[in-house]
Amino acid sequence: MARATIRDVARVAGVSDGTVSNTLNRPHLVNAETRERVQQAMAAVGYVPNAAARALRVGRSRTIGLVVLDFGNPFFAEVAAGAEQAATDAGADVALFNTGIGRHARESRLLHRLAERRLDGLIITPNDVDDPLLAVIEERGTPVVVLAREVPSRRRSAVRSDDVLGGELAARHLLENGHRHLAYAGWRHDERYIGAVHATGAAGARLTWIGTASDGFADGLAAGERLTALPAEDRPSAVFCANDLIATGLVQSVTHRGLRIPSDLAVVGFDDTELASAACAVGLTSVHQPAAEIGRAAVRLVLDEMNNPGRVAQDVVFAPELVVRESTGPIVSASRGTTSA
Prior knowledge:
This protein is of the alpha/beta class. It has 3 domains: 6-56, lambda repressor-like DNA-binding domains (434 Repressor (Amino-terminal Domain)); 62-162 and 291-318, Response regulator (Rossmann fold); 163-289 and 323-337, Response regulator (Rossmann fold), CATH 3.40.50. It is 46% helix and 18% strand. The chain contains 14 helices and 12 strands. The chain has a 6-stranded parallel β-sheet with strand order 2-1-3-4-5-11. It has a 6-stranded mixed β-sheet with strand order 7-6-8-9-10-12, with helices on both faces.
């Protein structure tokens, strides 16, 4: 059977060959009703677009920008791997960029450059989901999908894990093991912290915040130093860390200072990266989020918006799961178990 061609699609849809080509390569130039008719015709004749050939016709392949906070964080490395695979499967390329937590000026400079480059799509974990430069990029015809952040207004699409639920899962696990004084190591207004606040508040337990400057291994080392410097009678018996990098640094810091995991201090991480299962000094209990699938979902969503301009924004949320390992267990000290809030 001969392979269906653009001319076959055009004949069935009742449009020109050029309209079919625009539907495939420049969908923003074709109204929604005509695009739908062309897509139905493609299905009817069994037309399969050739991504490589289309790239040559338009002079380049479609390029999706992926901007994350820290490539040193294994979570983002796994997200990028999933995103690249999904883009490759769709005949698109991914351009990777790194900004940094709290580095607003660096992120702004990057977004200015990306606005000029006219990427076909942009996936970003922004420091600020309300950054006006994101709206500028969208106004210039580039769909934007927010990664690992909630967009409260729902004015643009987002792909994320339910971080509030993840924080609740971590804190509840520690509470169920008898801990009544918990610590959180990370950003105070992070949604994971908010989840921990909900759980400890509902249980009438105490939650101490140990702030970090960023989300790296060094931040965990510093948090561990601050934790062990507290008087023993006022020291939390368990700590929930904003991610596995912080948790790994904290475990190293406190064990070097003589604390045992989990008998002196129970520790929970977040992300469930390879650090949790293989690289930490003890098997790290961690809240799992499917990093690679989040990356794939973000690419599918931005491709959908590239092909269907004006589509209503979507909020794709993955449910986290707690993975229990050796870093947590029942509280040992009865006196700590009765610490008041």
